[in-house]
Amino acid sequence: MSFSLISRSKPKHRAADKVAELKQQLKDQQAETVSAFGQLIGAADTIAILEADLADVRAKRAEAEQVVVCLAADLDERTEERDQALADVATLRAQLAPFLAADANANAITVPAAERDATAFEDQATAPIDVRELQARFTAGPVVSLHYSPQAADPTHIPAPAA
Using an 8 Å Cβ cutoff, are 154 and 148 in contact? Predict the structure, then answer.
């Protein structure tokens, strides 16, 4: 019997195949380790940058708190000064009031009651308006009869006064 006629299937568990598979797994794990190490170094750099930023923020916060304390102290001082100035103004007004009243009384403008200079033409009294014609017009009845008047349709028509 010849060996060429026997078909052999590929052996499934050869040692060389297992070694090649393990070598490939080792290469993959080394690549993953290098990638993880790169990520670790990148994370460390990011952490260092963030810590520096945190230190800057804390320093600026402390400076801002100091500025706020100084501004609050200035505001309190200004408020006290304002209150003192308002009290001084009230005192001075009370002291000045009699002088203002005396000046107002001394320089008062007085006009005698019921006296008016009517000698100029424009100051003459006017005559009362005669309203009898208006009263006569409106006591005569409606101005326009809306039922039978031919002018009722014409809005520009002005009726003649009642006789």
Answer: no
Summarised one tens digit per residue, pLDDT across range 21-33 is 888 999 999 889 9
Residue with tokens 């794990």: 29
d(CA 56, CA 151): 92
Q: What is the C-alpha radius of gyration for the chain, rounded to an integer number of angstroms?
A: 56
d(CA 83, CA 88): 9
Contact 112, 120 (CB under 8 A): no
Residue 140's closest CA among 159, 113, 124, 158? Answer: 159
For residue range 57-67, list pLDDT tens digits in order. 999 999 999 99
The model scores a pTM over 0.85: no
End-to-end CA distance of the chain: 156
- Distance CA(47)–CA(41), nearest Å, equals 10
> How far, in Å, CA of 67 to CA of 65, rounded?
5
On the CB side of 37, CA atoms within 13 Å amount to 6
In angstroms, rounded to a whole number, what is the distance separating the alpha carbons of residues 118 and 125? 8
Strand ranges for 3-153 from DSSP E: none
